[in-house]
Amino acid sequence: MSAGTVTIAPLRHEDVPRCVEIERELFPGDDPWSENAFRGELDSGHFYVGAHLDGHLIGYAGLALTTFEASVHTIAVDKQHQGLGVGKLLLRTLLARADEHGVPVFLEVRTDNAPAIALYLAHGFEHLGLRRRYYQPSGADAYTMGRPANRD
To answer: What is the pLDDT of residues 51-70, one digit of tens each?
Structure first.
């Protein structure tokens, strides 16, 4: 990322319109999240972070935590910045938060998203199952993946 340094910071309500733009770019066939959906996630107290490059939001990620487990709700990086390690930074931030609580982490990922699947496998996730027609309205399947608690 030669244009500057990527910083990870808590996602803010001011970031929501840009999140919606990224959603529409990345997930046009699968009911992209609305402003209300993002605001609801932020208001619920879930752990959300944004990746900023030169002050511009280029990605975001969210994690829900309970006493017993964590669930990755989303990770997204705009197309222009994919393949540069931004997703890895976002994922590692979520995993660090889960590790602070010593809980396993679960997620769903489209079965045709090979780069994301490779990223998750490289970070200790395993395939747990298959959810047929999980993503709507496209009907795309999803793998359920999990990573054991890291209690170090």
So the answer is: 999 999 999 999 999 999 99
- In order of their start, the domains of the chain are 6-147 (3.40.630.30)
For residue 78, give the 3-state DSSP assignment. coil
Query: pLDDT, tens digit, for every residue of 33-44?
Result: 999 999 999 999
Q: Other C-beta atoms within 10 Å of 135: how many?
A: 17
Among 120, 126, 135, 143, which one carries the catalytic annotation? 120
CA distance 7 to 56: 10
- 36 Cβ neighbours under 8 A, 6+ residues apart: none
User: Residue 9: in which H helix or E strand, if any?
Assistant: strand 6-10
What amino acid occupies position 140?
A
Active site residue 108: yes
- Which of 23, 41, 48, 108 is catalytic? The answer is 108
Per-residue model confidence (pLDDT) at position 14: 96
Looking at residue 28, its pLDDT comes to 79
| Three-class secondary structure of residue 108 per DSSP | strand
